[in-house]
Structure to design on (134 residues):
């Protein structure tokens, strides 16, 4: 065997080794492309989730505003109801009662509810309030 054969053998070994490295690099590039596509899909899903979160935030804010408005309306209705209760006590019994001294449970539907009017310290009157459609 001559020097040319040894050199050719080394060259072939080097080429085979280089080919193996190239194959490994191609697999890594393929894996990177697959990973890049997967990341792009995840990014798209994250963007969709962010949009959903923003929509939910807007809906929650709208519900809060609606709840606040409803709470104010209920408060106004309760104040009106207390005023009506005080007026009814005056009408039926001829006694002036400050509407702030009339207490009843929260009225949320038609029906009969217990109430109490405070006249003086230690003097109260218990009565029922009937709520019905006009």
């Amino acid at each position: 065997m001559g020097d040319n054969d040894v050199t050719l053998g080394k060259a072939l070994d080097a080429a085979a080794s280089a080919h193996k490295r190239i194959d490994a690099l191609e697999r890594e590039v393929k894996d990177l492309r697959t990973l890049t596509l997967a990341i792009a899909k995840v990014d798209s899903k994250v963007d969709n989730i962010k949009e959903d979160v923003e929509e939910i935030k807007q809906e929650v804010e709208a519900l809060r505003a609606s709840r606040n408005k409803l709470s104010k309306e209920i408060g106004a209705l309760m104040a009106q109801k207390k005023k009506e209760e005080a007026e009814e006590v005056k009408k039926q019994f001829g006694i002036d009662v400050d509407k702030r001294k009339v207490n009843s449970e929260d009225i949320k539907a038609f029906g009969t509810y217990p109430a109490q009017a405070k006249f003086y310290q230690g003097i109260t009157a218990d009565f029922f309030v009937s709520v019905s459609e006009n």
Q: What stands out?
A: The longest helix spans residues 3-93. Residues 102 and 120 are 12 Å apart (CA to CA).
